[in-house]
Each structure stands twice: as C-alpha cells, then as structure tokens.
Fold this protein.
Amino acid sequence: MKYITLKNGMQVPQLALGCMRIANKDQKDVDALISAAMETGVTFFDHADIYGKGVSEEKFAAAVKNNGIAREDMIVQTKCGIRPGLYDFSKEHIIASAEKSLKRLNTEYVDFLLLHRPDTLMEPEEVAEAFTQLQSQGKVRYFGVSNFNAGQMALLQSALSQHLFFNQLQFGPAHTGMIDAGINANTRLDRALDRDGGILEYTRLNKVNIQAWSPFQWGMFQGLFWENPVYDKLTETLDKMGEEKGLTREGMVAAWIMRHPANIQMIAGTTTADRVRNLAAAANVTISREEWYEIYRAAGNQLP
Ligand SMILES: NC(=O)c1ccc[n+]([C@@H]2O[C@H](COP(=O)([O-])OP(=O)(O)OC[C@H]3O[C@@H](n4cnc5c(N)ncnc54)[C@H](OP(=O)(O)O)[C@@H]3O)[C@@H](O)[C@H]2O)c1
C-alpha cells in the first residue's frame, strides 16, 4: 500500500473504500469486501449519514463485527450536512447526525467527519462550536469538507481551531476540471474556466488532501466511463498500459490518480472483493510523467 502523510503526521492509505453502494448488498458479500480491503491495506473507509439512509453504515459495522476487526486497525470517516431538499450545517444538525452515525457504525468515535456539500446558509462560528463539542467529547478526532471551493474552505477554516484535513471532490480521468483550469491558465479557451476557485493549489498550499470520489464515473456519477463511447480512446489507452504493467483498467486509474504530486487519496466505490485487490495492486506501480499525460490526452483533453 502507498501512504500519504497528513499535516499532523498521521499516515493514511492512499486508497480508501467508499461504502456508498453497500446498502443493497448481501451481508456476506459486504463481509468479504471489508475483509479483502483490510487484507490489502485499504484500511480507510468512507461513509455518509445518507448512504442507503444509514443502512451502509450499519452493514459496515456488522461486517467489522463478523470479521473480528479491531477498531484501532481501521480509519473510519463519515459525512453529514445533506438533508432531503436542503443542506444543513447548523450546530444542532451536525451534532445529531454525527451521533446517529456513531450508533449505526457501532463505534465510540470516527476518525474524520466531513461536511458533505456546501450549505450557503453556513455560519462558520456555529460549525466551529459543533466541531469543538464533538472533538472535546471524543466523538470525532479530525474534520474535513467535501465539494467545497477554495473560498468556502478559507472562510470556514478562518473560524475553526481545528485544521480541515480533507476536501472530497469528484476526480478521475473523465472528470478533470480542477486540472484543466490550471493547464489552460492564461488562455482564452473554455478549458481555462475555473469552477472550483483554484482548489488544487489551495489544498496543496494549505496541506489539505483531496479525496477523489467516483473515480470511474463520467458526468455526475452517470455511469462507468468505459461504457461511454466518448471515452473509448481513454479505455483503450488504460487497457494497453495496464497489460504492460499487470494492472486492470481500474488499477490504471488508481495509478494515474496516485501519480499526481498533490497526494490525492482515491475513494473507490467498488462492492466487489476482487476489484479491491485489483486496485490495491496499483500501489506497487508508479507511472511516468509521459504516461500520465498520455492518459490525460486520451480522455479528450488538449494541451494549449
Ligand atoms: N462526497 C461526495 O459528494 C460523494 C459523491 C459520490 C460518491 N462519494 C464517495 O465516493 C465513493 C466512490 O463513488 P462511486 O461508487 O460512484 O465510485 P466508482 O468507484 O467510480 O464507481 C463504483 C462503481 O463502479 C463499478 N465498477 C468498478 N469497476 C468495475 C468494473 N471493472 N466493471 C464493472 N463495474 C465496475 C462498481 O461495481 P462493483 O460494485 O460491482 O464493483 C460500482 O458500481 C462512494 O462510495 C462514496 O464513498 C462521495
């Protein structure tokens, strides 16, 4: 496994397992998935209160119990702040949601709690009160955000005594907006459009690690990019390179994400034990600069 070192010196695996899709799976398959993840060093698990309306967290907790996994051997993260039809970063909601997640996850604490999507009615001081209470009670060790732009991160960070360790953002070879804007900077091309406020540079400057969600999806998790003919060239390139390196195409995506010097952590959403193993194999491979750019161009991106 490859590890990344966070601002506080904590080491976390660069591959994490997202548990969004496990709610509908048979418990025995979830048990096998979590067991395969632990065996291959994928010991970081991402949740949210809303995944399967809480059932994902419950099935994960059952799998931990069935596999006899010790709490301290895992890093468990969950998210809050999305309610049906609105976003809610009120102190009351953050605390209540985190406490319910702890019950479902059958644990005394989560390692990371992330705010899931920006709430435009956010009062940073109120969030700060919620974070301080949860941390001082030992319920949450560290905090982060998801889908925030750079200005939103800076605003919230200015009110907090805790560092924001992560920003979980959609990122993969078929979703590269935060990279395109930088590569095309100072041009009049549409590709220079910055939708995230320079988030890639903000996170690197402030020692925040990006977590890449839905790395295999195109659009807003509309499907696997290799099922979309628009990405045929990308798929062919990944398969060709993967054959040379002994990796599957999903392993190649992991190698491509991990090659970026921003130390991006990949959150893979597979529910299949074998695919976790294929992904973990990518930790032994470092692709070259030439290969990184070849994959980027194969996804339809042009360099100015
Ligand atoms: N912060 C946010 O707003 C946000 C939003 C969405 C997701 N997330 C997080 O990111 C995680 C990953 O998201 P995701 O699940 O959309 O990501 P993903 O890893 O891109 O997609 C996972 C899906 O791809 C399928 N898949 C992977 N490899 C395959 C292959 N070779 N052949 C066929 N199917 C394949 C998986 O099927 P199998 O299960 O059969 O392998 C699964 O249905 C989630 O679990 C969640 O933790 C966060």
Summary: The chain has one domain: 10-298. The mean pLDDT is 97.
